[in-house]
Inverse folding.
């Protein structure tokens, strides 16, 4: 009986025989009892063990979807933050980056089996936006109305020049 290619066998296009075909050599498939493969103690010790991480599991953090666009003099960032009070938002701005952090807390606890559908994200979220050009941090403004966060960032004009008058004395 001719065996198919590796891809044909894993995709199910060719039925598998009782023999296992490795790339290097042909080896008989291990016998199974009752559909469960039995390993001797030596085989169990030699079997690869799953990798266990010692770190504490971290709570999932959501990522906030944003719109970023520009006008002639400003860069605007907008995001829906429905269910989050403005005082629960933390917006950090530097000349080339904006970080928006917050948390949306579930108002009532509902057990898993009682849900028919669960698509809303509850918990902390964060979003870092790298800006395409430097902005004026001191004149930036953030506002929140009807669940829409708007951050207005005035662009810095590096080509602008001013003349200074030199004073005597």
């Amino acid at each position: 009986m001719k065996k198919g290619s590796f891809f044909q066998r894993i995709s199910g296009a060719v039925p598998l025989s009782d023999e296992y075909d490795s790339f290097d050599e042909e080896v008989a498939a291990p016998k199974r009892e009752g559909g469960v493969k039995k390993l001797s103690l030596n085989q169990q010790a030699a079997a690869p063990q799953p990798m266990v991480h010692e770190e504490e599991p971290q709570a999932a953090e959501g990522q906030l979807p944003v719109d970023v666009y520009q006008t002639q003099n400003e860069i605007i960032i907008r995001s829906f933050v429905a269910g989050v009070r403005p005082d629960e938002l933390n917006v950090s701005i530097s000349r080339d980056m904006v970080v928006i952090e917050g948390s949306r807390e579930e108002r009532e606890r509902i057990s898993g089996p009682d849900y028919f559908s669960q698509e809303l994200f509850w918990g902390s979220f964060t979003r870092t936006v790298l800006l395409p050009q430097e902005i004026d941090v001191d004149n930036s403004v953030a506002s929140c109305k009807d669940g829409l966060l708007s951050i207005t960032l005035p662009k810095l004009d590096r080509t602008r020049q001013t003349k200074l008058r030199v004073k005597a004395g």
